[in-house]
From TrEMBL:
It holds the Pfam family ABC_tran. Belongs to the ABC transporter superfamily. PANTHER family: D,D-DIPEPTIDE TRANSPORT ATP-BINDING PROTEIN DDPF-RELATED, TRANSPORT ATP-BINDING PROTEIN. PROSITE patterns: ABC_TRANSPORTER_2 (PS50893). Residues 224-245 are annotated as: Disordered. It comes from the Bacteria. This is ATP-binding cassette domain-containing protein. One of its GO terms (molecular function) is ATP binding. InterPro entries: AAA+_ATPase, ABC_transp_ATP-bind, ABC_transporter-like_ATP-bd, P-loop_NTPase. The keyword Cell membrane does not apply. It comes from Streptomyces smyrnaeus. Residues 9-244 form the ABC transporter domain.
Amino acid sequence: MTADPHPALELSGITAGYERRAPVLRDVSLTVHGSEAVGLLGPSGCGKSTLAKVAALLHRPYAGTVRLGGEPARGWRHRAPRAQRTAVGVVFQQPRLAADPRLTLAALIAEPLRATGRGREATERVRELADAVGLGGDLLDRRPHEVSDGQLQRACVARALVLRPRVLVCDEMTAMLDASTTAALVTVVEDYRQRSGAALLAVGHDRTLLERWCDRTVELAGAGGGTDGEEVRSAPRAPADTSAG
């Protein structure tokens, strides 16, 4: 199969925030190629989570362009075309805010399949991903309040992968996890990327983890306007050694 000549994700001149007069991001550009893992570093408040939401088509920027596989984004949130919405899988920092408390973990993982009319695939796909992320026994029958943060985040990672996305956005995915769960979930993401050729944008403040995980890191310096993306260094991936993060 011929490789896609276009970047998997391209953010050009992004200005975004929650008050137009005081954007948290101003004229930020970032490119992630197919099969590439890019770590986005920065302190709290610098706008990196906002940029992650823009990349995932969950937050409309005031200015700039988002391209997925060379195609400009044609909508945001539920107004984005299905093909573009489903091309991006997202994992957030706080799984309890990202999970419907009424759903079992099995239903949570299957939710994107059912929402896109592919519910018949759910049983097999949920079983496959539950094994991959380490959710065994009766955990799939439990609801979010009946499991730990780490177990719920495992389900959220499975949910992000269920539609086989071409781009993964992990926004502080491991911030609330212990070292062993962090290592396990990084390995799950990397196994998926190795098989699928998906691109990764991993957002965080842990430089050690991101530099070991990602092919290169970029840094958002400053906050509240005047923020710009700058490549700081390239680093080889070493997912087997992420427990130090």
